[in-house]
Amino acid sequence: MLRNIRSRILIIFLCTFLLVIVYTFVSNNQIVGSIQETKINISDKSKQKSIAEFSKERKKYSYVSFDNLYENTTLYYGSKIYQYGHIKKLDTEHKYLLVALDGNDASKTIKLKYDLSSFAKNDSSFQENDPIKFYGKVLTIDRYVNEKGRTVNRPIISADFIQTKFEKQGDNYGIV
């Protein structure tokens, strides 16, 4: 009788273990992943600021033209800048935007790293070719090979605040 109980317990343990393994491979952690993603989205959205809330902080940022930024990127490391542009490519998986500056010129592109809390409150929907205004810190240079085989440098900026709805002020306002 003791042997019978041991074998039943072993069979129950093996069946339970097998079910856990099958569940892990079949579900691909979809349930757990969606719960974590929801928590992240809720916490990021709660950190979003409205345009009015950011208005005091934006005075600490200076406008830097693309030419100055491109030619003197090392001079601007860590500097707080703002700029206008158009979204050329968005990568939601790696959370960056390629933004064409200075009149939607594709050759004057920067890489803008962001998270959901960077966007203005109620302003987190965006598409390619949408105009944006962003405030952020200059991080480094992204070196890549373009379709013509040339090595190209592109400034990388970490976004502190992004607006998709704005009124553009005069072109010479605050240029550095």
Description:
By secondary structure, the protein is α/β, with parallel strands linked by helices. The chain folds into two domains: 2-46; 51-163, Nucleic acid-binding proteins (OB fold (Dihydrolipoamide Acetyltransferase, E2P)). Helices cover 30% and strands 30% of the residues. It contains four helices and six strands, in the order αααβαβββββ. A five-stranded mixed β-barrel has the order 2-3-4-6-5. The termini are far apart.
Briefly, what is this?
The chain is of the alpha/beta class and 176 residues long. Helix content is 30%, strand content 30%.
The CATH topology label of the largest domain is: OB fold (Dihydrolipoamide Acetyltransferase, E2P)
**Unreliable sequence segments:** 31-43, 170-176
CATH superfamily of the largest domain: Nucleic acid-binding proteins
Number of discrete helical segments: 4
User: Total strand count, please?
Assistant: 6
Cα Rg: 24 Å
How many discrete structural domains?
2
Q: Could you estimate the helical fraction of the residues in percent?
A: 25-40%
Distance between the termini: 88 Å
The structure class reads alpha/beta
| Coarse shape | elongated
Strand content: 25-35%
- Main sheet overview: 5 strands, mixed, barrel
Q: Could you state the order of secondary-structure elements as H and E?
A: HHHEHEEEEE
